[in-house]
Write a structure and sequence with these properties.
Number of helices: 20
Number of strands: 13
Radius of gyration: 45 Å
Helix content: 55-70%
Strand order of the largest sheet: 9-8-7-6-10
Strand content: 5-15%
Distance between the termini: 155 Å
Amino acid sequence: MTKTKRSHSILKHCLAALLLTFCIIQLASASASADQANPLQPIDTSSPRATLQGFLETMDANYVKVYGLVQRYLASTQNYLSPEDMATMQEYLHGFMTAERTLDLSELPPSMVRETARRRTIKLKEILDRIAIPPFASIPDAQAMATAEFKRWTIPGTDIRIVRIEQGPRAGEYLFSMETVAHIPDFYEKIKGLPYKPGASAGWYDFATYSPLGVVWATHRVLPPRWLLGLPQWTRATLFDQPAWRWFGIAVVLGVGVAVILLCHRLRHYWTERVPSAEQWANLLRPLSLVVVTPVVVLILAEVLRVSGGIYQVSMPLLWTVFYLALTWTVWVAGGAVAESVIVHEKLRVSSIDSQLIRLVLRLLTVVLAITILVSGADQIGLPAYSVLAGLGVGGLAVALAAQQTLANLLGSIIIMVEKPFAIGHWIKLKDMEGVVEDIGFRSTRIRTFYDSLVTIPSSQLVGGTVDNMQLREYRQVKTVLSLTYDTPVEKIEGFTEGVRHIIQSHPDTRKDNIQVVLNELSPSSLDILLNFFLKVPDKLAELTERQRILLDILRLAESIGVSFAFPTQTLHIGSVPSAGLRQAD
């Protein structure tokens, strides 16, 4: 009786160890044994016969190989797997991966292909261990398929097909069709109640799905494998196709992930309070926490806890979606942080055109990078990248048509920032408005008028119109008329004009080669002397100051030589009309 129980125990642990090897597909690091014959040798897929025979023989041979390993391990007193055991498991790993390659997995999303391929390979073996398979000699070989009209073969009585791949890197090979791979879970549900054929590896999939094999492998250097494989039976009670121990692991993983994210949020607030100038970089902690936590959670759920069923089908695409959205968010925030850092490092004015141009260029780069990330993410979770690109193109066209004016303003802002016809602080004149430029944005420019109102002008109008930049003048014109009374002698007029010319000529901030002081007009009420010259001053305030100095000197000159300025006057002459004429008119 004791020997019988021991035999059952050995068989149970044999299955456990066999399933344990599936967890090392991505995590195994042991090297293959030295006497292994060509570890790169693939299964022959030149015909349906070769593909089916190679798949079954590879899976069966690996089962036998690992069965011997389990017997040795359970019969020994060792707690941990020896290097020789690890080498044997590595050989099995290669065999299992080789068997996977007989399936056409091209339609599986990259984010789910590893675990999905592993599960469907096991399920396919479970199916083939239960259904009748014709003798290999009756299955078409390469010679028979060369003359066959249809390049496919179906296992009799099933929809399991082996077809010839017509394009791609595996063109010409015969693989289990992608339709077969897609329906393997349905086939398994229909036949899982059937008895096994003699020599089948019974209970393979159930043990792989509900035993903590991933946890065993993740901790095999710390905890003896037999400890975890001997968990109480109640820990395997299932809810939504997940055993109790796995729900506990899911709760722990998600709890730790949320805690890390909240910790990063608190660290962001702490960093911002201590160093307010680093707020842009501190904001990176929020998306970065998701970028780091999400793939770790995916790895643990898929490779360690081995989440299965509908929970796996929903959680994996959802978590990868969160990852790529968070990565896009990270790029967007990083672009803004880099732009602001460059502005601070170059000591540029925050609202200057150069600063705006730096922000715009970085923003455009982040938009391109964000689109690239989103397209890659869509491909990762199974959405066709070309469809996403086409959708973005159609959507972009629709947005462009609906926002033509906005795009025109954006392009206008780019032109203004590149060509720099004016800058913030410049005094400019437009058609019916003038003022000082206060801000240059991505859509419009704001101008503070001289009566202190703020005018917002779309950038497209500025680019398409005429802008007179008064700030960029090298010389500022002063043009006015000095009106003298008609009783001013000619000699005084000549002396006055010469004196005014001397004042302007001797002023340090005037242009010497273009001074006009001449008697220009005999107006109805005055003798008008044209005064036209240029000042070389940096801004409007200096212009007004120097203009006042010159005009005051002119007033002093007029007072000293006795010249009077005329007031606008008008003489009205009234003539008398004879009374007789008035009566005749009446």
